[in-house]
Design a protein that fits this description.
By secondary structure, the chain is an alpha+beta fold. The chain contains 3 helices and 12 strands; from the N terminus they run ααβββαβββββββββ. The strands form 4 sheets. The protein has a 4-stranded antiparallel beta sheet, covered by helices on one side. It has a 3-stranded antiparallel beta sheet with strand order 1-2-3. The termini are far apart.
């Protein structure tokens, strides 16, 4: 494989992932019944993207971590991600920019009980960071600055791609605060990817 082909694959794979991610956000905003399936597909896409993203060339060999991948195997990973291309090509998230938060009945921001609460748009954090074997603390950052969520009541999707290209799912989260969490059982050093979404 040559550097031009690898660059093209990375750019196109990133475009497909962004496109599908916009579709997932659209499904969440609309309260679509298939949101969970879209989310599961997006997790698979992030796994495929993590392989593509971490690939580099040495001469004409494609490496993922310290493992050489045959060109055909690497192209197959790319084709699996391409399977989702175009599904959400027409999503326009700008239609949600004018939404006024309310309690869902078209009234004021006050709930039916008069509690006066409003809906927060700051409800998620996502990122990645290098980790070592064992326990690792994750701090939520926005623009490189610590940025806690409103509460510790959130759902975490986290996994590690090791330096050898393997994926570790089902991480044990032993501490969960508004400002981050601790993944206590990382088996091998690598990169931890996470998404945290408030439950309320």
């Amino acid at each position: 494989m040559n550097s031009t082909r690898l660059r093209d694959i990375k750019e196109e794979a990133a475009r497909v992932l962004i496109q599908y991610s916009n579709g997932y956000l659209d499904a969440r905003f609309r309260g679509s019944a298939n949101e969970k399936q879209v989310f599961n597909n997006m997790k698979r896409m992030h796994y495929l993207w993590s392989i593509i993203r971490s690939a580099f060339l040495s001469d004409t060999d494609v490496y993922v971590g310290d493992t050489i991948m045959a060109d055909n195997d690497f192209e197959t990973v790319y084709e699996k991600l391409q399977h989702y291309n175009g599904i959400y090509s027409n999503v326009d998230l700008s239609v949600y920019s004018d939404i006024t938060p309310d309690d869902g009945d078209g009234g004021s921001d006050d709930g039916d009980s008069g509690g006066g609460s409003t809906t927060s748009t700051d409800h998620w954090r996502a990122g990645n960071l290098p980790v070592v074997a064992g326990a690792n603390a994750v701090t939520f950052l926005v623009g490189g600055v610590p940025s806690p969520l409103a509460s510790a009541d959130y759902t975490i999707n986290a996994y590690v791609i090791t330096s050898g290209g393997q994926r570790q799912d089902n991480l044990q989260i032993t501490t969960q605060t508004a400002g981050g969490f601790v993944a206590s059982d990382v088996l091998k050093a690598g990169t931890l990817f996470y998404t945290a979404i408030l439950n309320t």
